[in-house]
Design a protein that fits this description.
The complex is a heterodimer. Chain A is built from 7 helices and 4 strands. Chain A is mainly α. Chain B has one domain: F1F0 ATP synthase subunit C (F1FO ATP Synthase), CATH 1.20.20.10. Chain B is built from 3 helices and no strands. In chain B, helix 2 runs antiparallel to helix 3. Classes of the chains: A mainly alpha, B mainly alpha.
Chain lengths: 240, 74
């Protein structure tokens, strides 16, 4: 049976080296380029007509727009509108990365912790800067809940601080682990199909079910990644 | 003990961590079903939180799985 983690190998397609630093154009970069190009084409070409009664493409673009706009309005409130472009980009990038990764033999760039952690770190740093810019040092009140007795501060503050600092890790590892493990499971079950020969129809049926589940997970994880970013943004903008 | 055998045992031990996530995911769905059973009108409101809770809890199982896979394949 083939090694199930071989599919996550990054292969350089065009070797580029600048002063000893490897910045080759890899299959991961190729998939990211396809996703960015695809999303841009979908939205730009879809909205080209600007019809009052939208066609199919325009409907699709509007569905994505309204989905993210509603998510921000419900979770952040009217002040979150300003951050719509960022959240929308994040959602589309993760969603299309996950979905295109489900194509057989395609590379899933969200299955690399370098990619997900970079995104999570941008969210975390941005949210922290927004919080300090809006509330100044008052933002530090987030680490000490209202109404708690002062004597509990030595316990509460470190707990809140650790839970705040662990956000980018949990955000990154959640997406990375879901995509990695999903693809490994698919590969392992596909190995059973080949091994069992004619009796392989049983794992094949199971594989079909798992593939459907993986599509659901791909959408769900893009959604969860975005909604958690929204919740963190809400914490920074409207401190509880 | 052979190092590769210890790796296998370690991976098995790491997978035990998934017990908790299994209980957690079961808890989420059972509460959700109970809620919708009591008040079907609330379905649209609570379903979303059910999915978010599922994804967040499931991630805990995946942390354990990542540890197990790291032991097996590195």
């Amino acid at each position: 049976m083939a090694n199930p983690i071989e599919q996550f190998k990054i292969k350089p397609l065009i070797d580029i080296r600048v002063e000893g630093v490897d910045i080759s154009f890899t299959n991961s970069a190729l998939m990211m380029g396809i996703v960015v190009g695809g999303v841009t084409a979908l939205l730009l070409l879809g909205m080209r007509e600007r019809a009052v009664i939208p066609g199919r493409w325009q409907s699709l673009a509007e569905i994505f727009y309204e989905f993210v706009a509603n998510m921000i309005r419900d979770n952040v409130g009217p002040e979150g509108r300003r951050y719509f472009p960022f959240i929308f980009t994040l959602f589309m990038f993760v969603l299309f990365g996950n979905m295109l990764g489900m194509i057989p033999m395609a590379f899933t760039f969200t299955s690399h912790i370098a990619v997900t952690f970079a995104m999570a770190l941008v969210v975390f740093t941005g949210v922290t800067i927004i919080g300090f810019a809006r509330h100044g040092l008052h933002f530090l009140h987030m680490f000490f809940p209202h109404g708690a007795p002062l004597a509990t501060a030595p316990i509460l503050v470190p707990i809140e601080l650790i839970s705040y600092l662990s956000r980018p890790f949990s955000l990154a590892v959640r997406l990375f682990a879901n995509m990695t493990v999903g693809h490994i499971i698919l590969k392992v079950i596909a190995g059973f199909v080949v091994m069992l020969g004619v009796a392989g129809v049983v794992p094949l049926a199971f594989l079909a079910g798992v593939t459907i589940l993986e599509f659901g997970i791909a959408v769900l994880q893009a959604y969860v990644f975005t909604i958690l970013s929204c919740i963190y943004l809400n914490d920074a903008i409207n401190m509880h | 003990m052979d190092a590769s055998a210890a790796k296998m045992i370690g991976a098995g031990l790491a997978a035990i961590g998934m017990i908790g996530a299994g209980i957690g995911v079961g808890n989420i769905w059972s509460s959700l079903i109970a809620t919708v059973g009591r008040n079907p009108a609330a379905k649209a409101n609570v379903e979303l939180y059910g999915w978010i809770g599922f994804a967040v809890t499931e991630a805990i199982a995946l942390f354990a799985l990542v540890v197990a896979l790291m032991l097996l394949f590195t």
